[in-house]
Amino acid sequence: MKIHSIVYSLGVAALACASLSSCEDYLSEMPDNRTTIDTEDKVVKLLTSAYSSAAPIVMVECVSDNIDDLGDNYSNYTSRFYDQLYAWQDITESSNDGPYFVWQGYYNAIAAANEALNGIQRIGGANTETLREAMAEALLCRAYSHYMLAYTFCMPYDPETASSELGLTYMTSSETTVNPEYERCSLEEYYGHIHDDIQQALVYVGDSHLTVPKYHFNRAAAYAFAAHFYLDYQKWDLAEDYATLALGTSPTTMLRNWDEVSNTAPGDYNEAWTNLYVDEDANSNLLLMTATSQAGLWVGYPFPMGNTKYSHSRYLADTEDIMSSNIWGAYTLQRLYPTGILVYSGSYFNRVSAPKLNNFFYWQNEDHTSFLAMIVYPAFKTDLTLLERAEARIMQDNYTGACEDLTLWMQNWTNSKMTLTPENITSYYRAMKYYTPFEPTQKKHLDPVFEIGEEGGTKESMLQCLLQFKRIETLYEGYRWFDIKRYGITVYRRKFNASGRPEELTDSLLPGDRRRALQLPQEVITAGYQPNPR
DSSP 3-state assignment of 188? Predict the structure, then answer.
């Protein structure tokens, strides 16, 4: 099939230090009309552009079970973009948090990574330590961007069906023609390419060429990414090994210092808290990224900004996650409580969140009437990597090792001194009823493509605990969607009444539902690229 642009080409020249006035201007020229990357210094500098300027956080959080419809009283506090997201519809509305900009951002980053790799070959190959490390960073950036595209726009990976499931286009070279043809490879082939790039990169990954390591794929971040990917790829032993390398020999010292957050005055709109959360000096933050996004405005600001109709409500928090009683006891034992959990209520608010994402504003004109909202967010952090190691251990039946990780996370997040064991975890979750939309609990039916044992058994109970901890850890960061897809968790759409309780079930997203792969941008489909089936 022929496609004039996969959006991949839109940023190649800009990312290679040339300035373009518009997409049309660029497409009227050959894509190789760009600055030549032919020195070590140019390669290293180009890699700053190998990270996407967009992120799917808002999209994937809004399609998850972390969000409810607060009802007709909030109908003035939304937009068609959020209406479509919440209903798992194809997105037709433009937004910096929407499919087109996410697609464009990641393929632009891939373009920069490929240009850096081309530059290394042009110089004569990775024949210095700096160039070897730069090559590793470029491969990791390419693999990560492709992976995030699959996470957003593809069905979950299943080794039994991946050969017949649609992947995307895995770009390993820069364009050399104006009208290239693109086809979607299978998801099996697509994941195979990600695996190959990661494995090649990990041979040479290093930090000596980095001036600001936390904003690049440093060594620890590379291992954390590898651990995350191999969980999805169902290579449990590799996931555990790479998570261990990312965490180091003393994981306790690498976790987030919640006491520091609780002891810090919040300031305007909790800015001090959110700045601490994305502090590059925090051991817990392995890789920080920036994106043009209104995620911070949606999450934590105490006034309506585009969408409050679809929110993480107090009812949801009380019954399912951050404010509900847990295996450690009451939620008041959490170190983030009482200063850190944000509860907003009022005529246009019913929302609970945690101080994580803060928006920074880039003003587009001198009179400050037009701006872009931007965020800094932790793409990889040790707290999540610790839980991912616990998951890999559970899948290998190493319940004792998994409990050590789960206990470490719990004792860091809470003031509890409890030690988790396979026995007390199984007892706790076996006694809990499974979730229903109008009688919600923390425990949801799991339907993954891999074996997890019988419901109420040790492995399934351990996974229930693990998934609950991950849900709390990643609230408002978009990671819940990973687990919903991988574990076949059904998502229900509930409409709330004026008293803040669910009164109507409007839809459900079952395992295998094709809407679990968000539809590709309409601009890309219109250009001729194969859409996701519906």
Answer: helix
- Is the N-terminal amide bond of 338 cis, ω within 30° of 0? yes
Question: Helices marked H in 346-452 — which ranges?
Answer: 382-395, 399-413, 422-430
Beta bridge partners of 508: 492
Nearest-angstrom CA–CA distance, 485 and 143: 20
Burial code (b: 16+ CB inside 10 Å, e: under 16) for 50-65 equals bbbbbbbbbbbbbbbb
**pTM higher than the cut 0.85:** yes
> Which residue is it, tokens 């992976």?
147
Residue 318, both tokens: 């009380």
User: What is d(CA 113, CA 47) in angstroms, rounded to the nearest whole number?
Assistant: 6
The Cβ of residue 30 has, within 10 Å, a number of other Cβ atoms equal to 12
∠303-309-312 over CA atoms, to 5°?
85
Strands (E), 413-488: none
Handedness of CA 212, 218, 220, 225 (dihedral sign): positive
Closest CA relative to residue 362, chosen from 292, 430, 307: 292
**Angle at the Cα of 50 from the Cα atoms of 251 and 387, rounded to 5 degrees:** 25
Q: Are 500 and 431 in contact (CB under 8 A)?
A: no
For residue 391 the two structure tokens come to: 């998951």
Residue 222's SS3 state is: helix
Task: For tokens 């690498």, name the residue.
Answer: 254
Closest CA to 494 of 506, 483, 480: 506
Partner residues linked to 359 by β-bridges: 375
User: E strands along 272-430, which residues?
Assistant: 285-292, 310-311, 342-346, 349-353, 359-363, 371-381
Q: What are phi and psi of 4, to 5 degrees?
A: -65, -30
3 to 20, 98, 146, 177, 523: CA distances (angstroms): 21, 21, 19, 12, 11
pLDDT in tens, 38-76: 899 999 999 999 999 999 999 999 999 999 999 988 888
Structure tokens at 501: 């309780």
Contact 238, 320 (CB under 8 A): no
Half-sphere exposure (CA, 13 Å, Cβ side) for 523?
A: 17
Q: Are 112 and 49 in contact (CB under 8 A)?
A: yes
DSSP 435: P
Per-residue pLDDT reduced to its tens digit, 478-520: 999 999 999 999 999 999 999 999 999 999 999 999 999 999 9
Instruction: Return the H-helix or E-strand segment holding 492.
Output: strand 491-496
Bridge partners, residue 342, by sequence: 353
- Structural element, H or E, at residue 68: strand 68-69
3-state SS, residue 57: helix
In whole angstroms, what is the distance from residue 357 CA to residue 360 CA?
A: 10
